[in-house]
Fold these 2 entries.
Entry 1:
Amino acid sequence: MVEPILEIQGVRKTYPARRSLFGRSAAVDALKGVSLAVTPGESFGLVGESGSGKTTLTRSILRLEAPTAGRILFKGEDMARLGPKALRTLRARIQIVFQDPYASLNPRMTVEEIVSEPMLVHRDILRLDRAGRRDRAAELLALVGLSTQHLARNPHEFSGGQRQRIGIARALAAGPELLLLDEPTSALDVSVQAQVLNLLIDLQDRLGLTYLFISHDLAVVRYLCDRVALIHSGVLVEEGPTREIFDAPQSDYARMLLGAAPKVRVPPATPSG
Amino acid sequence: MSEALLEIRDLHLTMSSFDGLAHVLNGVDLTVRRGEVWGVVGESGCGKSLTGLSISRLVPTPPARYPQGSIRFEGEDLMRLAPHRMQALRGKRIGMIFQDPTTNLNPTVRIGEQLVDVALAAASHDPSLLDDATPQQFGRRRQARDLAARLLERVGIPDAQARLASYPHEFSGGMRQRVLIAMALIGRPDLLIADEPTTALDVSVQAQILKLIQSMVADHDIGVILITHNLGVVAETCTHVAVMYAGNVVETGPVAAVIERPAHPYTRALMAAIPMRDTPRGQLQGLPGVVPDLIRPPPGCRFAPRCDRATAECRARFPGTGPVAPGHAVACYHPVRQPKIADG
């Protein structure tokens, strides 16, 4: 068995009860002891509905949120034990692509600035001078199917699909090993979604990346992911190879979710239900 | 065959912008009968939402202009209707639901009051709406409140009477969308226009909302226009489908016919882009290119620049709409005639 690149061990996250002007809110158990392991080079799908805890888990992996209990290991290293400097080094190896390409790119920055920013943040690792950053930015754009002529433009000049390509180029800039893909295609049309999914597959094949793909779109998860975990109310309800989960779901929740997802197929002559 | 509830003929819509005049709708034809659920699909910017908004006359003019075309609702041309008559139709006989249930409810007003307001407004056009509710002596407001509670119950909100006192933030996204559906149904509309009603919702909630819409059709024999970009939703919910591209309806027909045998290259491309059960990794077909600039649309068929079947003829003149099978029409010089494509 290969050592996992990412290991989540019994992670719990409780947001404490709060009192405010509007009254009292109860404590929320967002994650109730989640464990999973992602092996290098695979695409791991994390599927859950809103409120399931998938965002809390993503934020915990990025260490934007400290788990209440449990450990998150990146290549065997406990992220909670890292000092600020070591944590910054580690963050270059874990990058994220956000859901909404309209909200996640600064409209006042050029594409070159957007894609170069992680190289500046992680300059002590990458050690690129101005010219080096420029070359790398051009290289990254080519990698995601854009060209050098796009470097000086602003985000508003791009379509949603092109913007998401820029977001992917930015995520790749620091040379990560693990990419968190947080619903990267849910804001796109199907035609564009297909291109972005194929780009992700192509990049994985070429760069040997590991993907943690967070989504509620089961069709996309089935297309892209090798393994899947279903999360519901902060609990991992089912986990396994994609094909097994889709063909023979074990839990009631998985069956419900698969049954509810609309499929492109011809409806029966008599309406059911 | 029953008389059409809604008949859109050759509808053109232009929008003036800083860059010039955009030809947003380019001769849209659509006929909806009672009992039919029409799915309107296409990429963003194809004119789906503006078609829906045009029916309720909610597109501000200017910047919009309707150079030609008609929208007949039970024979009456909505394009020529006086604003106050349109106001009476809207929300009463034509109900609308929009995509985002959060922004369409007033966060500072209780759910019940928002529903009562709509009920009273609808009742001012048709007092009979409140009749079968509560004995007259309780007053119209009380009657409207009872009607609101009954509708909330109908859309599946438990303990409806008590929930009338809730504020929108106390409801989940799915429940808020149900409130909006209840609101749209208060006036007992004959036509329901649902613009991406489930896009912001989880699949399990989506399934409930779609089932609810279907049951409305079954119970009240209304007509529905369901605007969506999700062909899966269309396949499961709709009886008919209209595929739009850059302001044109390029293919229409019964859902089974269009999805089993898509004839327009654009419909086929849209379907090929959906990941299916056996799509091998990396083999998904994207659609190259983007929706054309509507200020300077390509001459002829607007899909021609992205179409691998396009010929000189396509680039010269827009193809008229013609049948490929009974009820199944396509606007294409070179429609695809092939056996059905694989199941998902």
Entry 2:
Amino acid sequence: MSERLIFTYDIDGGDFTRAGEASSSVKNKLKMLGVNSEVIRRVAIAMYEGEINMVIHADGGRITVTVSDNDIVMVLADKGPGIPDIEKAMQEGYSTARPEVRSLGFGAGMGLPNMKRYTDEMQIDTVVGEGTVITMKVAF
Amino acid sequence: MKLQTIMNLPDCCVLSEGSPDREITRVFCCDLLSIAMSRAPSGSVWVTVMGNKNTVAVASLTDTACIVLAEGVSMDADSLEKASEEGIAVLSTELPVFDMALRIYQAGIA
């Protein structure tokens, strides 16, 4: 692979049951590209957590995945409420998810910590009332 | 142990076949999808009472071989179809999570 591949997904904020389709699609594409399975797993987990967050908190958004020779970069951009306290949001167990989301098995306050754990680099750019951009990189 | 061995267990009903020849690594129990997402081992049998579409998505992304729905929990047709597309087996049982996980373990995971 000598040139970069870019995949873009628009995430629908309304449909919780469809959350994960973009991550599944990326997972399958990486599999076809012959990417190492542990790398695929890390990308899939980090992206799915981000995708779920966008559906739960931000009414959707856009995910851009760039596959290069040595790394995969995911950019998750939304026009949601923003994250007022990143330090708090990064703590395992801290969650602002609604009860109906929790009843589906989410909202345990693991999303952002998982995203950090499974990627090599993660950057959060957020403005309250305007939105959030999360950039994650998995190197290989 | 192959997945087929678990599919043959007497207390299980097979809802989606998945890949019966797949080698099983571990048995894993968890109902919180956020935790399953980060902890479910690749190639595992996952015993849970959470039977929604997101369960299938988590299984797919973590490369889980088989979902076992305990306590008589069922799964809707759409989700089963999704599991089938992803090659993930789905079984159901009336047994509680621990009892089912123990039987899977005793069937040959050591």
